[in-house]
Automatic annotation (TrEMBL):
InterPro entries: RNase_H2_suC. One of its GO terms (cellular component) is ribonuclease H2 complex. The gene is LOC107272837. The lineage of its organism: Eukaryota, Metazoa, Ecdysozoa, Arthropoda, Hexapoda. One of its GO terms (biological process) is RNA catabolic process. It comes from the Eukaryota. This is Ribonuclease H2 subunit C.
Length: 137
């Protein structure tokens, strides 16, 4: 099975960025939703780094995460779900982003969260695969 990413020229050239919220929940559904109409949370600033909000009565603690330097984030949508597991999949770009808000229930996002660890791998991979010679002091 292969996954084909189709990035539209308009997505690459667009100055407008998507507003993303990474929520600590799973929604069993794949329908479209008018998120900008129905999810406009009241977000209070705790300090420069951290934010608070609620979702369906649950307290959320969040912070903005920037996409690592040299990278661009893209959002994709799969118009046709595969019928079988071994079927090729096609995902189409719907927008791009350079930051997103990462939310946790009841705790402030920290370096110990899985997302932070995953983003750290970008720096680790670059260091491992770098062809630069280490500098001597």
């Amino acid at each position: 099975m292969a996954i084909h990413l189709h990035i539209k020229k308009e997505t690459l050239e667009s100055e407008k960025e998507s507003v993303l919220h990474l929520m600590p929940c799973k929604i069993d559904g794949d329908e479209t939703a008018k998120v900008s109409k129905y999810f406009t949370p009241y977000i209070s600033e705790v300090n420069d780094d951290y934010k608070q909000a609620t979702f369906r009565g649950y307290p959320l603690q969040g912070r903005k995460i920037k996409v690592p330097k040299g990278y661009t984030g893209y959002t994709f949508y799969e118009y046709e779900k595969p019928v079988a597991n071994n079927t090729d999949r096609n995902l189409y770009s719907t927008g791009k982003f350079s930051e997103f808000t990462y939310w946790n229930y009841d705790k402030i996002p920290s370096r110990n969260d899985a997302l932070s660890g995953a983003l750290d791998w970008i720096d680790i991979a670059e260091a491992l695969h770098s062809t630069d010679e280490p500098t001597k002091s």
